[in-house]
Amino acid sequence: MSNTIGGSAQLHTAVQARDIHTIHFHPERRAWPTPRQLLAVPAVFTDRSDALAFLDAALADPPPTTAPVAVISGPDGIGKRTVAARWGHRAAERFPDGQLVARLRAGRPAPVGEVTRALLRALGLGNGEVLPWHTEELLALWRSVTATRRLLVVLEDTEAAEQVLPLVPASPQCAVVVTCSAPLPALAAHGARHHRLEALSPEHSLLLLGRIVGEQRVHAEPQAAAAMVLACGGNPLAVGLAAGEAVLDPARPLSDHPVLTAPTTTEAVTMTTALVYDSLPEPESRLLRLLALLPAPDFDVLTAAAATATPVVQTGQLLQDLTARHLLEHTGRCTGRGEVYRFRPALHDSFRTTAVGADSNKIRVLVVQRYLDVLTATAHATVQQLTPHHRVLPRQHRHLPSEPIRFDGEHSALAWLEAIAPAVQPALDAARELGEHQALVTLVHDLWPLFHRLRRLDLSVAAHKQGLWSAKLWGDHMAIREMTTTLALALKGTGSLADAQQRYQEALDLAAADEDLSGIAQCTMGIGSCLWAGGHYADAKPHLSEAARLYDDLEDLRGAALADILLGSAAARQGQPDDGVAPLSEAHASLALLNPPDPLNAARALAFLGEAHSLAGRHDLAVTALTQARETFEGIGHAHWCAHATEFLGQDAERAGAKEAALAWYSASLDQYTALASLRDMERLDARITQANLP
After folding, report:
1. How far apart are CA 414 and CA 392, in angstroms?
2. Which GO MF terms does the UniProt record name (predicted)?
3. Contact of 47 with 201, CB cutoff 8 Å
4. 87 CB-near residues (< 8 Å, 6+ apart)
5. Angle at CA of residue 550, ends 547 and 552, nearest 5°
6. Which of 134, 252, 474, 653 is the S-S candidate for 658 at Cβ 3.0 to 4.6 Å?
7. pLDDT tens digits for 247-257?
8. Residue 261, Cβ neighbours under 10 Å: how many?
9. Between 3.90.550.10, 3.30.420.310, 2.60.120.1060, 3.40.50.300, what CATH number should domain 49-196 receive?
């Protein structure tokens, strides 16, 4: 039997009797469903026996140290995704641990970190804990979790080998299928095999047409049917779109189908897309055209309604209708967002071209403004739910959503932030392109819970650099200060302490010029926190003491408490633990009584108080404080601080001479850091375990 500490970390070592009361048994988390993300194969699927045979052969005899890779290339609409899905469904028993699908291009190449994060979440990671922020740590976690699994990974819309290679599992029991428009020679150098998917033969094109419109209509008008598939060039998507229009108008002869009079010089998918668009009712064509202007990988009903100024109920129905016509894809229901849709990859560029040609640039600007406004309004609702102490910047109220945005709790707010993260950079790029500087700054500012609670530090640094640039062009002094300060905080989180300290100094100079005591206090503490994080406790003390004094003068209980946490911890770690107990106790009491409360920082104060008691030799008090802090971190879902508190318990046990208990806590903490793929923390815990094992 193994004792469980926290979420999924397990104790692998016997525990001393004195520590039994600190270990808690928790029910196991509900099993995450095996991911089966392949598209359903249409009932009208036709032929492709050569491509399926290629995949059988290419993936049958894997190399001993890596997953085999097969590449399916071909033009838009030729059926690459469908072939991959067809083969994957046939081979499902070979991959009992799941079939994953990742789209590597949605208007722009998807960053490897975002793709890796999505794949890990599909396997159940990051749904009860925070995933690491650094791409290398994400990839390390991906390699670890795929090493012993049997998975099929389908990477769609790939543009370069560099997108694929980091995601190839090291396990030969896995397999990777890549779809792309053009061959990827660089993958061949790594052993990947390629197959070019060609157009359907005239016979199979006619068979596909008959399966959609009905064989009787094809037999009744064989010449018109043959001319239709010839006009579609054997492209399955083009045939499907043309056939779909015929199904919607059964009384119209095939010989009158507009595809027969369309220009033959136009590419088949572009031509049929234009014909379908022209046949749409005005509300559907308007919505489709405006959605094509969004700088977004996908959209939910509320976002689509707000961005296009369409009533919510009508938007939901129109999205369903467009999906039924196979112009959009329904990607599922997402917590915090509801039903989510996206353009079919082969059609998005065509509709964007149509939209740009049909609407003036003024319309595009208006759509993007509405989109930015609804993103910002929703992000602000997460601030109110998750970080109510966050400063509010001046904001524009141009296009407020027609319905109030509310979240029913922290879980749904965090789920929305996690789901929307891939849309952040495209939205910021669009805002910058259009000169929407105030909107850009406000959006970055209101996404604070994404950066802070979900530790998206890489995205935070990039976003705040853009935010600072836009704040300067906007010319709002407070926005410049706020972007500088939060950029410093993001840099500090990534370990770039010197850069962070420099940014804090810049923000301090701005606050001093404004004679803003609150800003001076915040930036002074920021400088002290950078020095504290680097272990320069003596250098940090004067900055932290000055910040605490300023906060006391301002009667800012929270600010003073945050400064006291670092002052108390610094004293304890400098060999004066008794001097640290009072400020840490006061900080915990103040933060626990705040309205609204600040449970995260209250628990941080308690954890450092436990460390101070431990350094002073008061081990019972240390265990009590650390256990309570750890339970709070676990309760609010902060996995990183839960692992820290577990590590503190190990250090306390080691100081108390309880070697086996120390090893148990260290093992538990290492398991938690490993689940987070926090490499620096893992290295530190490995060293602690090695040291504790020494005689």
Report:
1. 20
2. ADP binding
3. yes
4. 51, 52, 55, 56, 177
5. 110
6. 653
7. 989 999 999 99
8. 10
9. 3.40.50.300
